[in-house]
Amino acid sequence: MIKDKAKIIVVDDDYSFRKAVARILVANKYRVLEQSHSIRAINSIIKEKPDLILLDLCMPEADGIEIIQTMNRMKIEIPVLVISGNLNRVDVRLLKNRGARHILLKPIHMNELLTKVKETLESEISQDNYQST
Question: For position 92, what pLDDT does the model report?
């Protein structure tokens, strides 16, 4: 069972893509915060403590890999689902090693995105329940 009204931060500098993803998530009963810049995204992550982060890699200021590295340094353990139009094998391996749960390539089908969001949130709840027993 998914947390009631899970909070998701969508971090992407592409306004149209970010808004489309946010609309789909809201229509599916998620609470959504949006960020277009890396530095503001980190501040939002710290302040809002979301249940999931949807993260683009190519952004101004700092890229998605740097955001994940910052989260790791700060011991922020929030699942990350990377969505990018520009990935290579080295990036994929690095992202997986840094803790990215899923990596999706743009353009993405929204049904696939919703499936991965649901899987990730359900996996987190299962892990939380397992650790609390």
Answer: 81
